[in-house]
Amino acid sequence: MRGLGEVAESDVAGFLAALRQGDDGHPPLSATSAARAVVAVRGLHRFALLDGLVPDDVAAEVRPPAPARRLPKAIPVESVVALIEAAGTLEGPRGLRDRALLEVLYGTGARISEAVGLAVDDLDRGQSVVRLAGKGGKQRIVPVGSFALRAVEDYLVRARPALAAAGRTGVRGGALFLNARGGTLSRQSAWSILRAAAARAGGVDGDLARTVSPHTLRHSFATHLLDGGADVRVVQELLGHASVTTTQVYTLVTVDRLREVYASSHPRALT
Known about the structure:
This protein is 53% helix and 4% strand.
């Protein structure tokens, strides 16, 4: 049995490699699981150094494996249209509200929390822009397309007054999107609206209900802009990302799409 002071950096690196490769008795670990184990080992050696049990921290330079980057899941434009159309099929004020909400989510790339946090005055219909409050309270101005503007106009004229009247004190503040009791629509309710619309639109895209997530329309907004030729730094500003590196993950999706088109269209793409 070797003591802690006899462990070398190569031993720790070899331990990580063994975790990732597995053997006859142990399946290989994912990057995330292996990283947890390596972090524990690094913590042990760091403690031993601080406590004077070893002269060097041999695990300090062994980096945990980075987990595989999860690509954002966008849906095709026709599925977005089906989703929005399905949201508007409900009778009465709720259908107009739900359609307007989804149009705003897709038309601006807003997070659900940003959309439900909108006040009526945050939307400048004359300039066709909206003011969104992102993470850390950082605000940004984002253009709003004609489809979203029309949907919001219909909602403000034909639906919001009825929803506001359901509240005991009328309009509670200036929230744009209201619930059936006249209060501000919650993030959870907005997510339920999106999920219900996906279920109703399932006939157009069979797995849409399983694909949709709170960020589906935001991911689709970014991917469709890049597919259309938008500059990644413009998309970064629209999404409110602090770093362009965060936005560049969408370019990986676009490259995959380019490969698909190339493979299916070029006469000498496939052997």
